[in-house]
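Supplementary Methods S3. Complex input for the flavin-adenine dinucleotide-bound model.
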Amino acid sequence: MRAIVIGAGMGGTSAALALRQIGFEVEVYEQVRENKPVGAAISVWSNGVKCLNHLGLEEETKRLGGMVDSMSYIDGLTGEVMCRFSMLPLIEEVGQRPYPIARAELQLMLMEKFGLDEIRFGKRMVAVADGPEAATVEFADGSVASGDVVICADGAKSLGREYVLGRQAQRRYAGYVNYNGLVEIDEAVGPATEWTTYVGEGKRASVMPVAAGRFYFFFDVPEPEGAPYEPGTAKEVLKTAFAHWTGGVHALLEAIGPDAVNRVEILDLDPFDTWVKGRVALLGDAAHNTTPDIGQGGCSAMEDAVALQFAFQEHPGDPRAALLAYQRARVERAGELVLRARRRCDLTHAKDAAATQAWYDELRREDGTNIIRGIVGNIVGGPLT
Ligand code: FAD
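Predicted complex, serialized as structure tokens:
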């Protein structure tokens, strides 16, 4: 069996590895000319880590991952610790530690596992079509590729999605901008092995450790869609937005280099049920574009990859049946994560100020039990449970 995978992001590379593991001949096509991931890091929750382990990346993932032993929420305006608790109950319950990982390193790990030289860079898909014997992709340079299946892991603005759905799907602005980057660990901001989050006024400032003594940081700021922004001024924007916040947030702002901040307007997409058309399937953000508020977009893409492998094991030699089984296994779970993230997004960013205030009050009464229950609820339910 031959699979054509479009997109060498974390979804496409995971799918390529998962299919190759069961004997597929896999070709990966990527539009960019070189590997330059946008964004600083992601938290790979335990479900994502289990998928990476399944793909034979256990040691590498552990090496690149930050150690998060505890979690805290701090009142961003006063510095009061609202709650602080151990992550060990979560790790014990789900049987796997989560690992925040620098995005470039995660991406490179996946690409190297597949074979960097084997990825066909500079190949932009411009059309895809199902067919009776094969599915075919056409590239901007006029070349074509065909396989028993085409897996469109072509991200949030997916062209594959347009083909499978037969229409353009409109993404939705979630109401805030995420500024993120990497800094050296500074305990004035938060303990070295803690995921520390400052909250207030519907905003967040957060750090979590990744490998090599670094914090992945992010700030969430509610802003109107398309708000004017001068590239390179993120630090000034953040200094203004968080001017009256507590010392730990100022320490973080001081640590950030002037050009070291990514700025991302956050969008998502209403879940939809059709991921497959004949021999063509969607995977990752192409199939389920979520806000990052529960840190599950990439993990869900990795779950897709493993589920795809399982579906082909259930239906060897029958690509159409396998892709439909894949769709059945994934649609509900991935859609639920998108909606959970959306609810969490609205609560965190004060869509309803009274609800957000009630959440802040709850955080002051929290001993970790409810937060861990919520996170476990996100983690459990994928192909490796
Ligand atoms: P992408 O990573 O977007 O990859 C798609 C690839 O396809 C790209 O390389 C692109 O160049 C290529 N491509 C697109 N079109 C074509 C074409 N026509 N032809 C050829 N190639 C094409 N997830 C988590 O699990 N945990 C987190 O903590 C987390 N934090 C996040 C924070 C932020 C601010 C954001 C924005 C997202 C976060 N996510 C997180 C989500 C995660 O980044 C995505 O879900 C993940 O990157 C999706 O992977 P993908 O491979 O589906 O898509």
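The radius of gyration is 21 Å. The first helix runs from residue 10 to 21.
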